[in-house]
Design a protein that fits this description.
CATH superfamily of the largest domain: Ribonuclease Z/Hydroxyacylglutathione hydrolase-like
Low-confidence stretches: none
Structural class: alpha/beta
Oligomer: single chain
Shape: globular
Largest sheet: 7 strands, mixed
CATH topology of the largest domain: Metallo-beta-lactamase, Chain A
Radius of gyration: 21 Å
Distance between the termini: 21 Å
CATH class of the largest domain: Alpha Beta
CATH architecture of the largest domain: 4-Layer Sandwich
Length: 311
């Protein structure tokens, strides 16, 4: 199976700290690389993580607050400088088009034509990303500026069984034809795909940043193998979370529990919390969610969970 992992480039919120850079998350999905919310310092963090501009095939921006987007100019200029040959699609809230234009051409540089803007908008589900091995959808969140979360879904597939293929006499080009057509005739007998393969559930990744609790966050995370979600505050600052339309770790855990998530990754921590208090984020989320929880740290690599077993 191809490598599927999340590389954490930054985990702070509005103000970076000595240990936590501004936001930045790189999802490696086989030969695809999705960069989420590149804040300041993303280009350097990519270097430290061993990532190149050529690894990026798509960028997803949730909203145009600086800690989620001020790294865009550097990343895009690096894509141009390194002469990345493939298209790099960039999804962002269409309501922030003026900010996109400013960031896209923040300074003078030798531009590139490979960057393809994909503004998202509306109050419902916005589908993008038909070119990748997964579908990408965006849903609006509840924040102080237009903000969208993203959901990547791999279609369900099949895992071929060499023994069963041989037993049914399916060989060579007939294997791909069976996979494509669902049933074929071999030596005068019809062979169905289910006789030679087992269902392979597709994987789901969800990315939810700055937002208050809302149904859209739950819908984005529904059945996700991995949910990356902001948890800016602890319970003691719940009033601030509601006032500024952010989440506490407990709220993030509640969303994960309602959505049936498998792995919950907490990030976007307020700079107010010292290192010795970070365990409280996991503890408070765990009071709502009984699955696996990871508190993200800069330059962590978090593997996607193994596929679910077919029901």
């Amino acid at each position: 199976m191809s490598v599927r992992e999340l590389v954490i480039l930054g985990t702070s919120s509005a103000v970076p700290t000595r240990r936590r850079n501004h936001n930045g998350y790189f999802l490696r999905w086989g030969d695809q690389g999705v960069l989420f919310d590149p804040g300041e310092g993303t280009q350097r963090q990519m270097r430290l993580a061993g990532l190149a501009a050529t690894d990026v095939t798509r960028i997803c921006v949730t909203h145009f607050h600086g800690d989620h987007s001020l790294g865009l100019p550097g990343v895009m200029q690096r894509i141009a400088r390194d002469r990345v040959p493939h298209t790099v699609r960039v999804a962002y809230p269409g309501a922030g088009e003026e900010y996109w234009r400013r960031l896209r051409h923040a300074t003078s540089f030798h531009d590139t034509e490979v960057i393809l803007p994909q503004p998202v908008g509306g109050s419902g589900c916005c589908a993008i990303g038909e070119e990748e091995p997964f579908t990408v959808t965006a849903l609006p969140l509840r924040h102080s500026v237009p903000a969208y979360g993203y959901r990547l879904v791999e279609p369900d597939g099949w895992r071929m069984s060499p023994e069963r293929l041989e037993r049914h006499g399916v060989r060579g080009p007939d294997v791909s034809r069976l996979l494509r057509e669902g049933r074929i005739e071999v030596a005068g007998r019809e062979v169905a795909l289910a006789e030679c393969a087992d269902p392979r559930p597709g994987q789901v990744f969800a990315f939810v940043m700055d937002t208050g609790e809302c149904e859209q966050a739950v819908e984005l995370a529904r059945g996700a193998d991995m949910l990356v979600i902001e948890s800016t505050y602890l319970d003691s600052e719940e009033r601030l979370a509601r006032e500024y339309r952010h989440l506490t770790a407990r709220m993030a855990g509640r969303i994960a529990a309602r959505a049936g998530v498998r792995l919950l990754v907490l990030t976007h921590l307020s700079e107010r919390y010292e290192q010795e208090r970070e365990g409280e984020f996991v503890a408070q989320a765990a009071e709502e969610f009984d699955g696996r929880i990871v508190l993200a740290a800069d330059l962590d690599r978090i593997a996607m969970p193994a596929r679910r077993r077919p029901v």
